[in-house]
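Why does residue order matter? Because the sequence determines the fold. Keep that principle in mind as you read this record.
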Amino acid sequence: MVSLEKEKYRHSSDSDSNDGSTETKIHEEFQEGSFGEPTANAVSISGKSLSLIFTAGKHEYAELKEELSRRSRISAVALEEGQASTQEFNLDEFLHGLRRAQDSAGHISKNLGVTWKNLTVNGRSPDANTIPNIFSFFKIWRLLGIGVSKNQKTILQGEMLLVLGRPGAGCTTLLKIIANIRSSYTSIEGSVSYGGIDPRQVCYNEEEDQHYPTLTAKQTLEFALRMKTPGKRLPQETKKDFVNKVLFMLGNMLGLTKQMNTMVGNAWVRGLSGGEQQMTTSSTINCWDCSTRGLDSASALDYVRSLRLMTDVFKKTTITSLYQASNSIYSLFDKILLLDEGHCLYFGPINQAKPYFEKLGFYCPKRKSTPDFLTGLSNPNEREIILGFEETAPRFAHEFEKHYLESDIYKQMMTELQEYERIIEKEKPSDMFREAMNDEHQKRASNKTPYTASFFQQVKALTIRQYHINITDQAALISRYGTILIQGLITASCFFQMGNDGAGAFSKGGAIFFALLFNSFISQSELVAFLMGRPILEKHKQFALYRPSAFYIAQVVMDVPYAFVQVILFQACAYFMMGLRLTAEALLTFFVVLFFMNMTMNGFFRYFGASFSNFFLATQISGVFLIGCMNYTGYTITYSDMHPWLSWIYWVNPLTYSYKTLLINELSGQDFSCEGPNNAVPYGPGYDDWDYKVCIMKGGKPGENFVRGDDYLNEYLSYNPSHKWVPDFIVVIGFFIFFTVVTALSMEFNKLSKSTSLTKLYLPGKAPKARSSEEMERRLQQAELESGMESVSSGTTFSWQDMDYTVPVKGGELKLLDKVSGLVKPGHLTALMGSSGAGKTTLLDVLARRKTIGKVDGRVYLNNEVLMQDFERITGYCEQMDVHQPTVTVREALRFSAYLRQPSSVSRKEKNDYVEKIIQLLEMENICDAQIGEVESGFGISVEERKRLTIGMELVGKPQLLFLDEPTSGLDSQSSYNIIRFIRKLADAGWPVLCTIHQPSSILFEHFDHILLLVRGGRTAYYGEIGEDSSTMINYFESNGGPKCSPNANPAEYILQCVGAGTAGKAKADWANIWEKSSQYQALQKELDNIHNSSDKNPSRKAIFKRTTLAYWRSPEYNIGRLLNVLFTALLAGFTYWKTGNSSGDLLNKIFALFSTFIMAMTIIILAQPKFMVEREFFRREYASRYYSWAPWAISSILVEIPYIFFFSAIFMGGFYWTAGMHTASISIAYFYIIFSALVLWSVTLGFVIAALSESPLTAAVINPLIISILILFAGLMQAPSEMPHFWKSWMYWGVPFHYYIEGLAVNELEHVVVQCTNSDLLKFSPPPSMDCGEYMTNFFLYGAPGYITNASATDECEYCPFKSGKEFYTMRFDWSENHKWRNVGILFGFFAFNVIVFIILVYLKRKPRR
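Structure:
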């Protein structure tokens, strides 16, 4: 049972002293020195040394006043303008001034504590989850719980609070339970109380950052502040004033003033550094999980100090878990909870923790920080037991817990808990808290919800943010409107100036249908954009920043101007050139209907994005529905020909009503001429009297040489012209409202994610067993592992001299590295240090040849030779962002790296053995058979485990030179110690290592022998030996004017504070200039010049496919989704055109049935892209390390698809061919399968080509409609070849693969058909007197006309069937020939080969990301 109250976390009242500080008392544990870890907060003021201490569980912070005031800051106004001034910022004074102003304005403080009792949390055991593959989908019985492991694993138990513990100890679980995030656990026992307050007042922030990468830091923070601006503010303070004031405070407190206008970025978008991103995250929440990950030690300390001040001044409850916390950070807390395996090892005051465990018999070495000592207690390889306590000291988590429950500290904590509960019962702070919450709510914001802003204000702020997101994605905007412009012009030219005759009426129907189709395809890109923002939406929903429905409404609001411009652009390009109706009403109707249809289809696709969290599932299901809507619009199959079992789709289809309205708008009230060939029967010389001929166009009347548009609409399409506005247009608006409402409600009430914690998926039978006494033996074996590391005979030396790196920015260039020089010799372990943003990662990227943009100058040599092509392969580079192929297991990934990177002379067994050694060394035995997965999906290994895997992936390759970018970031102290100790062994064996490191403890820093220290601006502050006990490095700084370093100080923190690292640091000297004038610099330059003068300027010297196959096999959501998509599309098309007959009208239905098959190819194009883009990110990382060349990967990407394609083609044929009543001859069936397979092969590779050309899924989604629309437009169906303008017919028609595909399918199906017209197909007219029908039509047929007369001897009414055979139909109408059947198959395979070549070229050109 534990409690954590805001007042008790740490506070000091303003009334304690006038200057906001209290009397400082010194605790003996933190007295010595001036720069050490135990006394890192000590600051000399007027010759007196003050040290941070705690009294009665409450820390004092007066000395922070000066510590946080030393840096030049930016005023709120200047910050708003993006300009800096030299104003001093004092956080202490700022916060206290803010608090005094609030108190004087009558604001009520929100003081909320949290308690929990007898908390036990259970989750599913590892063997309950196995890696899915394609066969997993067919195990339907598992959905009923049959064959699923019922085992449970206890994650948390006992009475707990917070702070320290190794990964897997239960820290994250506890934080999530406190934040009421419980869905991923099977059972939770015990109670958590917030003093009667809604648990949604508690926010949890995970250690993995989630931000919109294209927003700037300022835009990100401004949005959060708008959502949390209180309704009751200081007198005369506007909302804008409040936002600017807090933005000013956060920018200065977190050291982001100069980065406010920098994009946040992510793994693929350049932006803030990893540390700066973490600061952006941490500014909006008050429950933290490893929030200092990625920050250097000075910045981490400043960051926690800022939290300390905010906690004290505003009486907040702050809960945090930290890895690698220094004594300086540790001393800022009041209490600590130590966890291991879900057990509570200790909960109590921080100053009693170390003595408590020392009394149990554990020894803390002199240089070891208290947090490292405490977290190391659970590791038998790290803890040290005092002589005489070997038998009594606890060894396992349950033994530690038993000792704690029997201790006086436990009783003291229980007494404190009971006292707090009595205070809660007596004072009822929840009533005051509710009153404060009500004051915070903005005007018109409901007091019953946790949202501060009203729904209108949420929508307003979200709309502004959505505008920034849209406007900064210039590539998507350009491709979107460029696509519309190009497609509008192409469409208009293809349907150029359609005539007012029968052929023109059919063409106008096709043009309008195509306009709807294209705008629907454009809307499909919204699904991609919508799903990309889901993780951030989920995070913000947990923060109670805004309602998800407000997020959607804001998107709809932002759709209006974009859709307006889109429709105007398309209409301006297409409407007039196509020769559509030129009246004001017709123009306006076309615009309004197309606008609302576009808005409706945006909602249509977003609904699937809101209902399904998986991209592939959402795309595939929406694709099936879209194909259904297209088939049942009334164009490809008229309502009268629809079968009753699926005709209901016609009535619930938004495209139907849009098409009806637009077609009525165009045709109603117009007369269409029947003069000219192919418009009337009979025609030609001698057939001039309209009393004896009839229009071919439906709706024609005998004796009239025109057809009324209203008659055509009624008789052929069953459209009533009077329905144009009501109900048809009203229904379109209704669908827009319907999709807006259901999507908003779906987002509001649907759970956005299945999992709130990471679930590991193991190979069947490979799940780890519960820990036992063998665990101790396993860990003890690790110390002996390094002894087997062999020496490197090559003796690699790596040097760089005067490295400059500049990148283009708006208005000029920015220099990120400035004359940086260094040297790494065999056996050197060199630390690369500096504050966040100083250029550490940039330098590593430049040295490792990872940069693709900007200009690099300087000299780089490996073994006195210029770098060769194999440099990336023979060097290892562990990047800060952990990017791995998610479908393989940890062991498979490591073996893949070892097989490809170790020399071929090394046997596979030796490679496997080395991999097992690395697995044991990095403590990955429990996860070696677990799937890597993806963090955002909720399945896979943890962030910390990914970091270890990243390091392992490089180590198994036995590189000659090793670069590591923050290898210990996000790891606990013991994991960090293991890795640094192992890297030290590598260096001792001859490996040269260059390693950036952010927060090294004294113990870790001792392992390094050289250091390169950078300051902001990418300049060198020091390079050289560290020396024994850091003496060489410390002497350099002290001799050049640096402060005196205490013998107990952490040297790493000392040098960072010297050069002014951290958010509040300010250097007292220009250390870069001092370095350039030093004797050490001159000696380094001399040595590098010698290397340059003696260097050699001209030196000389099937696994991929298997891994790719495995990745596809373990992607059931992709392949099973495609399978179901193909199957449902086939069945939909087959039953839509069920058993198509051989009448004249059925000939066109057969063509459109075959048309639906390449509509499915459109879906295949779209589905292939995201999978490829995901795989490409892993390829780029592996290619950067030269695991393999670009060509094998490109070829493997295509080869792995081929068996799936042939299987899908067979499934489609089975669902479509016989249901649609196609020709059953064996040769016809075989031909259909071959040509359809060729089309799908071509479609997949086209999808790859588009994806290879695009850097983001959103860009590809915008390009897709243009490509697909052109393919459909020029296939010869929408506009017959005879009707196309000569320009397009002469080359585009012949350059579109769909033309050859549909010709091949059509002649394959129709060449054997003998037409038997039904009564509705017959054209009826009267012959002249004294002639029967046969005599009258003789000359007509002699002119070469198709068809036949069914009643040649009749004299009253002739019945004419337009075609007598399928061959006649496709020859006369489309100029197709059965002689082209097999030629067309060859041409399609030729197009497939062309795609493959283009794809391989694009892979080569885009093999490196922009960085």
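The chain has a mean pLDDT of 75.
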